[in-house]
Design a protein that fits this description.
By secondary structure, the chain is of the alpha+beta class. The chain folds into two domains: about 10-125, GMP Synthetase, Chain A, domain 3 (2-Layer Sandwich); about 145-210, Alpha-Beta Plaits. Helix content is about 25%, strand content about 25%. It contains five helices and eight strands. It has helices at about 45-70, 105-120, 120-125, 165-170, 190-200, and strands at about 10-15, 20-25, 25-30, 75-85, 90-100, 145-150, 155, 205-210. The strands form three sheets. Strands 1-2-3 form a three-stranded antiparallel sheet, with no helix packed on it. It is extended, with a radius of gyration of 23 Å.
Length: about 210
């Protein structure tokens, strides 16, 4: 298994309603609910982020295709919105994507670009089968712990939190091998390589002792 992002997107919330701080590989931004939902509208809400993802992925995909073709189409805009409808008793989410080519295009170009928009990566994710796996991490000190140490680093493993996502075993197998005992070979890589891999653990089952 290989994750799409080298570093997971992380988010935190405190007691301020409903301000979330999101951290990504190059910085951070605020997500909030609108005032009518009890927030302060200090940042985009989750629905806006979802629609923005589809809209921007569409534009980037179209720009790549247009540039590869060498077409003179300098500007494109997109508007994205969503609504719910019930069909045969089942709630359906409908996303509307309106493309606007802000310079002349031929009918052939318009048809081809419409097809390209439909297969942008985010479109394929949203229209494909999606599974959401949820792992829980606690900062409590009551979990069972095992430590693996050398002179440079100590790895802490909490087996009760380990969900066997396979990330550590597939990405750094010279250190993490569930088929061996002990399953962590602390001498299998540099301290920095181990730290980088432990930082990717989705559940907090692995950590570095301070």
């Amino acid at each position: 298994m290989e994750y799409l992002l080298d570093n997971a997107v992380t988010a935190r919330i405190g007691t301020e309603k409903y301000k979330c701080t999101v951290e990504w590989r190059n910085g951070r931004f605020i997500v909030d609910e609108p005032e009518k939902a009890g927030g302060k509208d200090a940042g985009p809400d989750p629905y806006t982020l979802l629609l923005s993802s589809l809209g921007t992925c569409t534009l980037v995909t179209l720009r790549m295709y247009i540039d590869r073709k060498g077409w003179d189409i300098p500007n494109i805009a997109v508007a994205v919105n969503m609504y719910y409808e019930t069909v045969d008793g089942k709630k359906i989410t409908v996303l509307d994507r309106d493309l606007n080519f802000l310079s002349p295009v031929t009918s052939e170009q318009r048809e081809r670009l419409t097809q390209i928009a439909k297969v942008c990566p985010i479109s394929k994710i949203l229209e494909g089968e999606i599974q959401i796996r949820t792992f829980v991490y606690s900062d409590g000190e009551d979990e069972k712990k095992h430590t693996y140490s050398n002179k440079d680093i100590t790895v802490v493993w909490k087996p009760e939190l380990c969900k066997h996502s396979g990330r550590c075993a597939t990405q750094l197998p010279q250190v993490f091998n569930p088929g061996e005992k002990p399953w962590i070979n602390i001498e299998g890589a540099t301290a920095q390589e181990i730290k980088d891999q432990v930082a990717k653990c989705p559940t907090g089952a692995l950590s570095i002792a301070k």
